[in-house]
Write a structure and sequence with these properties.
alpha/beta; 12 strands; single chain; Peripla_BP_I; 10 helices
């Protein structure tokens, strides 16, 4: 696996708090006449798509945050296609926006268009997902979760859940979109943890493309070839919810006959957890809007945002899900 260059070299740059967007000096990109009035700023945002409840919440939060801040947001939906995002970014460059932000569909293949943005002196901010590039000067900041850590948290629960078992534990992994940072990293973190015990075996691993329909379809097929599976690890809640439908259609009880561990903690997933159909969820917060606005305002003020900003997140078991659901924002 290629190492992602996301600016982790300087320990002093790792002030990992939820509001950790304070600038680090006056070396930003504000014009010679000083910062623009906030209501004159224009930001272009290229979203992955609307493949999941998480992504819908992410889009809504970002649009609301920019509206509240009085900053114009130009928005495009790539429908999970890299070529659509590249087209949108080039359009933003041509329009001369002040900042470009996007959540990359996949990790690779961005250097050319990001060099175009750099040549146009338009700062780029990565949200939610990283890019795999040798040149980290192509973006100003990366705001998002630590996907490897999410995978490790899922693996930790599995290890603890089966710590007293001497029997083999057969696992199906529902992967996210092939080549996407969260799919790669969540698989890596999970494998790192369970790999220390030979009783854990991933008997099948296939992409469900982060969608509920994909999770259902893949689980239906994999259950036929692996009827004695013990656990499903889904890279997001939507695929886990699809897996629940497939398990129930097979006459089995999700959460009992086949345990499920997932990532996201959107409302539907949390409800399934509260109902006992999912056993454990690792949170991945989509509420990045206010932090993204902070980064844009820092850039406008001539400040340098932290290169890597990690969102604060937690985990949920059944009782914790029940307690959190009434106030859940997404």
């Amino acid at each position: 696996m290629k190492k992602k260059f996301i600016g982790l070299a300087a320990a002093g740059a790792m002030l990992l708090t939820l509001a950790g967007c304070a600038g680090g000096g006056d070396t930003g990109t504000a014009g010679s006449d000083g910062p623009k009035p906030v209501d004159q700023l224009v930001v272009g945002f290229a979203q992955v798509g609307a493949e999941s409840g998480w992504r819908t919440a992410n889009t809504t939060d970002i649009q609301s945050a920019f509206k509240d801040a009085g900053i114009e947001l130009k928005f495009s939906d790539a429908q999970q296609k890299q070529e659509n995002q590249i087209k949108a970014i080039r359009s933003y460059i041509q329009q001369g926006v002040d900042v470009i932000a996007f959540s990359p569909v996949v990790e690779t293949g961005w250097d050319a268009v990001l060099n175009e943005a750099k040549a146009a002196n338009i700062p780029v901010v990565l949200t939610d997902r990283a890019v795999d590039s040798q040149d980290d000067s192509l973006y100003v900041s990366f705001l998002g979760s630590d996907f490897v850590e999410e995978g490790k948290k899922a693996g930790d629960w599995v290890v603890e859940e089966y710590k007293d078992s001497t029997d083999p534990v057969k696992i199906i992994q529902l992967e996210g979109t092939t080549g996407a940072a969260p799919a790669i990293d969540r698989a890596e973190g999970f494998a790192d943890v369970i790999g220390g015990d030979d009783k854990f075996e991933i008997v099948a691993s296939q992409t469900g493309d982060f969608t509920r329909a994909g999770g259902k379809q893949v689980t239906e097929a994999l259950l036929k070839s692996n009827p004695d599976v013990d656990l499903i690890y889904a890279h997001n809640d939507d695929m886990a919810l699809g897996a629940i439908e497939a398990i129930e259609a097979a006459g089995l009880k999700p959460g009992e006959d086949i345990k499920i561990v997932s990532v996201d903690a959107v409302k539907d997933g949390m409800q399934a957890l509260a109902d006992g159909k999912i056993n454990f969820i690792v949170e991945c917060s989509p509420l990045l809007g206010k932090q993204l606005v902070d980064i844009v305002e820092q850039i406008n003020d001539g400040e340098t945002p932290e290169k890597r900003i990690i969102t604060e997140e937690t985990t949920f078991d059944q009782e914790q899900a029940k307690a959190a659901l009434p106030d859940r924002q997404y």
